[in-house]
Amino acid sequence: MSGAALGLEIVFVFFLALFLLHRYGDFKKQHRLVIVATLLAWYLCFLIVFILPLDVSTTIYNRCKLAVNSSPAESNDSYVTLAPSKQKCFKPWSYIPDGIMPIFWRVVYWTSQFLTWILLPFMQSYARSGGFSITGKIKTALIENAIYYGTYLLIFGAFLIYVAVNPNFNLQWNQLQTIGIAAANTWGLFLLVLLLGYGLVEIPRSHWNGAKRGYLLMKTYFKAAKLMTEKADAEENLEDIMEEVRKVNESIKYNHPLRKCVDTILKKCPTEYQERMGRNMDDYEDFDERRNSYPNEKSLAKLHKQVIYSVQRHRRTQVQWQILLEQAFYLEDVAKNESSATRQFIHTFHSQEPENKIIQYFYTPTVEWYWECLLRPWFYRVLAVVLATFSVIVVWSECTFFSTKPVLSLFAVFIQLAEKTYNYIYIEMACFLTIFFLSICVYSTVFRIRVFNYYYLASHHQTDAYSLLFSGMLFCRLTPPLCLNFLGLTHMDATISHKNTQPTAYTSIMGSMRVLSFIADGFYIYYPMLVVILCIATYFSLGTRCLNLLGFQQFMGDSEMTSDLIDEGKELIRREKRKRQRQEEGENRRREWKERYGNRDDSTRSRAVHTDQKESSFSETNANRPLSKYTRSNGRTERDRIELLQDAEPLDFNADSVNDDPLESDSGR
């Protein structure tokens, strides 16, 4: 069982990262290198979070063995017995043999650092480039990242020169490596505290507000009004870009050297625009003979980049609008069914996707009514209280984890109590819940945050390649300081506990932070206390109020602008609801008409075919009779009838003028 736990977690975390990436990315349309790089970044970060509790339990067992070796003891394969106290030091079920964890952490850490500082920034520029060849995209990516890479090389080169010239510094390679790790962790810790302060308050509050049906419905109306504005803006932007593409398509003919670039741009356009702007093959004039100004390859690359962005944004707003409509309709159904006397959940619209028969069997309308109208609000309230309790414990521990005598950090108290009895299951569960809650607070903020249209993680396969790669960069930069902060909260880091004990394998690859004492004894200890101020600011929604003052509409209950947007969103939802009801009524009428009169139409059609066959046979038997002039007149009459039918204009159909009684309409016909 020593390596079974490690292997199971490696496999489980891989499928977890794959599931999340499938939810946000699009495996069919996005480049494979983008998918692989993002999956690797997410996988490594999630793997660190899940494997670290095993490292803690293994370290506690190794400390026990060191204590045994310093005193007379009896040992065997499964446990070690201390002679003085007769206390058994059991080997944990998830014990990882010596030498495996340091190699594992070294590979995982340096791979993630290579991704976040070198590969992913380059792939961001590559994916966002509008070049038409691999060489052109690589060239654009190198130019865009030259300043980015050059700044780091300049700082690092200046530092090396200063160390080489100054005789007071005698730094070795391990110490330089530690300084680089400390610099990366300092940057990550700075961002980590900002995201953690927001998540510790917003996650419990969002679950508490999730129990308020009226609050959720009003917020959905607010989102509908904002999304409609964004949707209209995306459609207008797409129309403008397609107009530019149309002009380029008309100016660059089939024999122009840049025609292949235009064809590449047309392939990225939506299907309806591709059909409208077919290749201009009817003009065979040589492009050199016409004195028109043609765009160059650089301007076409810029247009290609704009087409990719506008099409992605238009598709995303369309999908999000449909999802928001379904959510609004469902919340309105919940509000209506709360006062239902039958205690059965009734939907206004049937689901457009086929439901699973097993779910339909167990999740009946009665069960759905009890869950949505009675149990779910209370479940969300209880969950919000539990999450708020965890948040208070985290804030207290972040402010007191530097105190070792007495130990004030609650997480350190829990781990030390379990360490005395060597209850490894409890140790691993406590460590996992702690770091999992910290990860949820940080990672959920990364998934929620939106920087205009520059960075935005949208579910239902609507996230662009640039945002996926940027999220991988953030995860790789946030996870190492998050794990070091967790080890500090539990006093498993020797830098915090000030004990001469065996460190964990994770902290051993980080090196001793004593090389930079002002970071180890100053920034790492006192900067996390800033989380208290950030939590207070988040609780009173100071950031939301500032954004609202700057003109970015945010959902605030006491704002007049919010009330106007809620009313606008309510009217939009009502309009879409009436539109869908009319569509369903029209489909039902057509279905009923087909069921009632489908057989009659078939019989009428068969009788007409039989009559035509009889007439054709009669004309064949009388073909040799001397009635040619009558035959010509009949043929002329038939041709006149056909021309009248072809010239006839179709009647305008008005749904309101349709008679609901099919018998009267049939008699009228």
UniProtKB/TrEMBL annotation:
GO terms for cellular component: membrane. Residues 224-251 form a coiled coil. Residues 618-634 have a biased composition (Polar residues). It is found in: Membrane. Keywords: Coiled coil, Membrane, Transmembrane, Transmembrane helix. Residues 658-669 have a biased composition (Acidic residues). Residues 582-617, 635-644 have a biased composition (Basic and acidic residues). Its main location: membrane. Residues 576-669 are annotated as: Disordered. It comes from the Eukaryota. It is a multi-pass membrane protein. PANTHER family: G-PROTEIN COUPLED RECEPTOR-ASSOCIATED PROTEIN LMBRD2 (PTHR21355:SF0). Belongs to the LIMR family. This is LMBD2 protein. It comes from Aegithalos caudatus.
